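Lab notebook, design round three. We kept the backbone fixed and only want residue identities now. Task for the bench partner: fill in a sequence for the structure below.
Input structure tokens:
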């Protein structure tokens, strides 16, 4: 019962944003060009920005190793995110870690008591 869509203004799948970033990159390039820097400084500034974006992309991709790693990262970065806790709980359940699953699903319900997916996952845990 993973929740892989836009919920409450947060994305469950941020990899789809890379294409949308081109507009931001072009606008950033235009602003850097308007600084009037000499060509070597302009190239250095562009290289630093490109490396920073590439490094942050590589670091984020490491979270996609498996479901548990992804949702642990998301619930650490946004501890109030009920969807992340619910999905982490479900990933733990699939891995046979029922105590961890119950803790995360209970946390999801603490932040969003009407979360239907977390309620359903809790029923699955209680049924077993």
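Proposed sequence:
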């Amino acid at each position: 019962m993973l929740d892989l869509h836009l919920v409450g203004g947060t994305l469950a799948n941020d990899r789809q944003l890379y294409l949308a970033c081109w507009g931001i990159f072009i606008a950033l390039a235009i602003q850097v060009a308007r600084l009037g820097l000499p060509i070597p400084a302009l190239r250095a500034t562009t290289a630093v920005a490109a490396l920073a974006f590439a490094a942050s992309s590589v670091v984020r991709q490491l979270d996609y190793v498996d479901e548990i790693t992804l949702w642990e990262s998301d619930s650490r970065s946004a501890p109030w995110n009920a969807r992340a806790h619910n999905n982490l709980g479900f990933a733990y359940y699939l891995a046979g870690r029922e105590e961890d699953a119950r803790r995360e699903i209970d946390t999801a319900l603490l932040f969003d008591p009407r979360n239907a997916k977390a309620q359903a996952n809790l029923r699955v845990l209680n049924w077993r």
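Keep this in mind before ordering anything: The two ends are 16 Å apart (CA to CA).
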